[in-house]
Amino acid sequence: MLRLLFAIAIVLLPNALHVSVDTGIPGLNFSNLLLLVLIGALLISAKEPRPALAGPGYLSAPLIALFLVLGLGFVIAQWSEPGDLMEDLTRLKNAIFYPILYFVYRRCRLGLKATRQLIMLVLLVAVVAGLEAVYQGVQFGLGQYVDSERASGPFGGPEMANRAGVFYAFFLPLLAAAAVLMTRPKAVRMAAIGGCVVLAAAIMLTYSRQSYLIAVFGLLMLLMHLMRRKAMVAMVAGLMLLVSVGLFPDSVVQRVQETRQVDAAGAATLDSSTASRFDIWSGAVKMWSDHPAGVGLGRFATNIGEYSSHVGMDAHNTYVLMLAETGPLGLAALLWVFWRLWGLGRRLRESAASTDLEAQALALGFRIAVVSVALSNIYGSAFFEGLIMASFWVLCGLLERYYALKAHAANELAEEQQPAEPVGIRDRFPLAARALPGAGRPFRTAPRTYPR
């Protein structure tokens, strides 16, 4: 029953917009309700039977530090610029709730087989979400790029296309690593290749330029791991790009070309979307210089108009957003989270046996996925977007549990295969040892002497 509950949550979390459920509680949406149900199920279930998973997780400390900093940002906002208290509480709740999924799934009480099944389900749900985006893109048509006809899958309208693209870019390296490293069984490898094709097509049809870059960078990281000679990597990457240019739809090529435009004087300029980000980031630095402790959680949009020409705009960069709203302390907490995520990927790779191709593929793919998440927050601010990040936090918890369970099973097997210590006569027959005191003594090893 517990496994079914966790599986249902994995399916529904990225598809929450498809489920119209009114909780009746202000600020509590369907995803939050799912999380509360999972937490309740863990509280009433039996305790964690495995000592290795009973303690704090590898990401526990940085995430708790991030929660404390966000709480401090909420206090600063109420102190310096009071607003709608319920709206501010909802913003704080959403920023904290979704990373809690890491704690929940790491302590889900399930065994090795069930944990592995949930990991596969996370990847399957990501591919199905990609299929929805591909279907939308085909319905829109592939002739010319139109801003209002961008695929976004289950994540909302065209305005969510950028964030949908980075979601697909998170999971592409996981499937690509499986497709390359898992030479057997063949069915699994073919399924991974099919998933890569779906996610790559979904990324293209979101027309998210940052997702294009993230996906290409992730695949190059995978190539660099597989090929030690950098020259060979560069040559293969160049050939891939040359071949793939002719395969891209005209709408994708048009979207990429929009990044660099030519004005009336013939000078090359950036498009308005790219140029506006640099203006906003410059204003954010000025904002922080005036408010060294930050302007408070959720106060970036209300203050950026004083430092740039973009009134009410988002930062489009999570690192800049944290610096402006929570100061250097918030930025340090966020970077600590990413540093630990990278370290978690390294620990997973070190713990995976060289003969376990599945564990090797998941560890390598996860490490590249962490880099993809970090890159996605340079040109956007999806870190606190629950629909986009929920599946990633679930995956973090499940992978840490999966590798801990594998290590636990390997230790138990090693103990079982260890030869038993010899048992002496005194231990096996205590009464006989008392009757014959010399029976349990070791034999003499000195050589015997014979009379001549």
Q: What general outline do the C-alpha atoms trace?
A: globular
What is the number of helices?
A: 19
Low-confidence stretches: 261-268, 442-446
Q: Let me know the number of strands.
A: 2
- Protein structure class: mainly alpha
Q: What portion of residues is helical?
A: 55-70%
Our measurement of the CA-to-CA distance between the termini, rounded to an integer number of angstroms, reads: 84 Å
State which percent range the strand residues make up. Answer: under 5%
Mean pLDDT: 81
Q: Give me the side-by-side strand order of the main sheet.
A: 1-2
As a whole number of angstroms, the C-alpha radius of gyration is 28 Å
Describe the overall structure:
The chain has 452 residues and is mainly alpha-helical. The protein has one domain. 67% of the residues lie in helices and 1% in strands. The chain is built from 19 helices and two strands. A two-stranded antiparallel sheet has the order 1-2. Strand 1 and strand 2 form a beta hairpin. Helix 4 packs antiparallel against helix 5, helix 7 packs across helix 9 and helix 10 runs antiparallel to helix 16. It is globular and about 95 Å long. About 3% of the residues have low confidence.
